[in-house]
Each structure stands twice: as C-alpha cells, then as structure tokens.
Amino acid sequence: MHITGITKTLANINLKTMAITGDMERIAYKAGTLIERRAKENISGKNSHHRHIVTGNLRNSIDTKVRKKTQTVVQIEVGTNVFYGIYVEARDKSGGFLRPALYETQYEALDYIRRTVMGELNLL
Questions:
Q1: Cα-based angle 54, 57, 62 (whole degrees, multiple of 5)
Q2: Would you say residue 92 lies in a domain?
C-alpha cells in the first residue's frame, strides 16, 4: 500500500494542533461557563428545592477563570470571591451549589472540549 500526501497531511494536523493549543484557553473557558451556569441555576433553586438567594450577590459573583499552566495545559476555575460562599456550599446537605454543578456538567463540558478539538482538526 502506498499513501501519497501523508507528510503534508501530518504537517497540516500538526499546524491545526498547534492552533488549537493556542485556543485552549478559549475552549476551556467555554467549558467552564457550562459549570458556572449550572452553579448559578443550583443556587437559584432551578434544579432543586434548595434556594440560596437573599440578595443575589453570591449568584452574581460566581465566575469562570482560566489559567494557563504550561504551553499545553490550562486550568479551569469556577467559583466565587464572596467570603460566605464556602459556608453556603458546606452547610447545604444536598452538597452545595458548586460541587453538584461540576458533577452534573462534567461530561457535557468534556464532550464540548472533545467535539470542539475534533471538529477543528476536521476529524468528526
């Protein structure tokens, strides 16, 4: 069997992989916002009977940050800077609002990352 153009194909895949590596922060941020949205829904009581809103300050403070660790590794952080957020998270017998958001959306977020990367490599 003789495959022609394999060198060019591999070079194109390598270039696209490098481009996606550069876009990983954008892709990771989008995945993080899926978790963020669910956390806000959880704290609003949309997904359960537990409603934690008094002023809306905690819900509005939940955000997503992406930190680039290395050239090919990024870290997604979803959380709040409101000092009492940890107490609301810990006192709720249903597991809080952030932890369930992660468990409920982890596969959706990972699937989004997989589909985006595979799509940008034209492997879908």
A1: 125
A2: yes
> Is 5 part of any domain?
no
pLDDT tens across 77-123, in order?
999 999 988 888 887 666 788 888 888 898 998 898 888 877 766 65
Domain that holds residue 60: 25-111
> Mean pLDDT across the chain, nearest whole number?
78
Q: The tokens 């879908």 sit on which residue? A: 124
Buried b (16+ CB within 10 A) or exposed e, 39-61: bbbbbbeebeebebeeeeebbee
Q: What is the CA radius of gyration of the chain?
A: 19
Contacts of 40 (CB under 8 A, 6+ apart): 59, 62
Considering its fold, how many domains does the chain have in total? 1
- For 96, the token pair is 């809080």
Q: What is the DSSP string of 10-40?
A: HHHHHHHHHHHHHHHHHHHHHHHHHHHHHHH
Residue 30 inside a domain? The answer is yes
The tokens for 108 are 């959706």
